[in-house]
Amino acid sequence: MRISENEIKSTDNISELQYDFKPKSRGTIPKFLTLSATLIVIAILFVILLNIIIGGAGTISWDFLTEPPLNGMEAGGIFPAIFGTAALVILMVLLVIPVGVLSAIYLQEYTNPDSKITRIIRVSINNLAGVPSIVFGLFGLGFFIGFIGTGIDKVLLNSDKPIWGQPAIIWAAATLALLTLPVVIISTEEALRSIPRELKEASYALGATKLQTIRRVLLPQALPGILTGGILAVSRGAGEVAPIMFTGVAYYLPYLPSKLNDQFMEMGYHIYVMATQSPDVEKTKPILYGTVLVLLILTFLLNFTAVLIRSKMRRKRVEI
Amino acid sequence: MDTKLKTEMVPELFEYAHPSGKKIDEYKMTVRNLNFYYGRHQALCDISIDIEEYKVTALIGPSGCGKSTFLRTLNRMNDTIPNTKMEGELKLDGVDIYREIKDVSVLRRRVGMVFQKPNPLPKSIFENVAYGLRVNGIKNKSLIAEAVENALRRAFLWEEVKDKLYYSASMLSGGQQQRLCIARALAVKPEVILMDEPASALDPLSTAKIEDLVGELKKNYSIVIVTHNMQQAGRISDYTAFFYEGRMVEFGLTKAIFTNPTMKKTEDYITGRFG
């Protein structure tokens, strides 16, 4: 409807009110408070990093990265731990990405994302992310090793000796996958949600089915988001010790893991072992620092890649 | 003014009858007593209309009057929106599209759609046009290439893009993107083309091109077009339906609607007294 003449006339009678505006304070105190809080954070970060770099930089060498520990971990390198971490993380990614992406697709595309049930599921997933990691470790021990692994041994293999029903890299990877599942689901969901409706409708309007639309339009568009989720999962998983403590990591192994039911060494746990179990802490200190530095660099690099991919994705996203 | 007199003269409710006077089975699409709901809100109320073959039917009306919602019931695009409900009868060539057509993708292939904002897929120009063919099971590469060229020619876009078929579609101008979207719709051989304000996001020159294109397309396709621009409806359509608050207030030959509307509401809208 057009604005009526009566409405226009009625605005003529609005009288001017008188009020004084109060002068504002200059805001020095809030600025000081926020700045000092920020400085404290930066200072702590610097102290940690500096300490680790000074302590560890001298230790890192080609030999340190490629040799196994020697003399009860007082000498040698950390190669088995690096190898074990890499193998563990790769296995974890292979488990967490398919399950996480499929769940996110279900939540976003096959249910009404705003319905009550979907919201309850989403809250549960967020809560899963808040469960302490040691709980995951115990769950992995009870469920994967005690239930699934032992089940395989008894029912499928008919064996009395534990083959799968013991701590192993596959169970540790499964436990870590469970822990990092929320990261992958949430970032995939976010990527799917950010795809404009118009793109989906374009696909449907051409006679594409839901599955075709997901495969040919949605997944390629969401791929950077999925990758970011995967990398964040890796950098989270690579640093976790508690979930693998009962499910597969070994104190020391004279061989590298070659089968899914082998045990393995891992950097985070290696650090824990050297810091707490070593008979001569002073002798292992440089190796300890070196290992921490390698682990830090690894996780920083992974996080950095995630950030790079994400910013690239933002720039490349189709504008509609 | 003699508005009071006029209100007394016109009937309260418009009696629908298609001005072509054809029998019901001669129309491309027929809609009878369509109701549509978003949750509890009724967006369309008792719509009956026929879409004649090889003609342009324009839907006009103020924002929120339900014309886009109506358009999207014709290819069941509203199915993708949760909590919606549709009642009534909607037929394509005499076949009920909500009850008798089980595979909605077949319906959408036959009833193509062009959206308000150009929405090319994040793929190359070529792949945008080929997409509809690929998802409908066509694998023959030379056939696809030929069909893509064909569709781009029909949309008068071929000359502008023939040297950059493998560039991303997003590098095209808005008007070109919209013609790409039309080409994409044409590639799957639709019988009816639904256009939802296809030129509202474009500059005047691109708009003129789209309008010319609609004039060409109606030789081979039945077109239903939603538009906010009344001059546009006057220029390109054969029939016009005026929607207001979820109801179809009036339907008739475009000329008749614009020069001599029977309903007071229609006249008010066309003369710009509201909307």
Structure commentary:
The complex is a heterodimer of chains A (320) and B (275). Chain A is mainly alpha-helical and 320 residues long. Chain A contains 12 helices and 2 strands. Chain A has helices spanning 5-10, 28-57, 62-66, 79-110, 116-130, 133-156, 169-193, 197-205, 210-237, 242-245, 267-276, 281-316; strands at 69-70, 75-76. A two-stranded antiparallel sheet of chain A has the order 1-2. In chain A, helix 4 (79-110) runs antiparallel to helix 9. The mean pLDDT of chain A is 89. With 275 residues, chain B is of the alpha/beta class. Chain B has helices spanning 3-9, 67-73, 104-110, 125-135, 141-154, 158-161, 174-187, 204-217, 230-236, 254-259, 264-270; strands at 29-38, 41-51, 56-60, 84-92, 95-96, 111-114, 192-196, 222-226, 239-244, 247-253. A 6-stranded mixed sheet of chain B has the order 6-7-8-3-9-10, sandwiched between helices. In chain B, strands 2-1-4-5 form a 4-stranded antiparallel sheet, covered by helices on one side. Chain B starts with a helix and ends in a 5-residue tail after the last helix. The relative contact order of chain B is 0.18. Chain A binds chain B through residues 1-2, 112, 114-115, 196, 198-209, 212, 216-217, 220-221, 318-320, and chain B through 75, 77, 80, 82-83, 105-106, 108-109, 112-113, 115, 117, 119-122, 131-132, 134-136, 170, 181, 184-185, 188, 273-274.
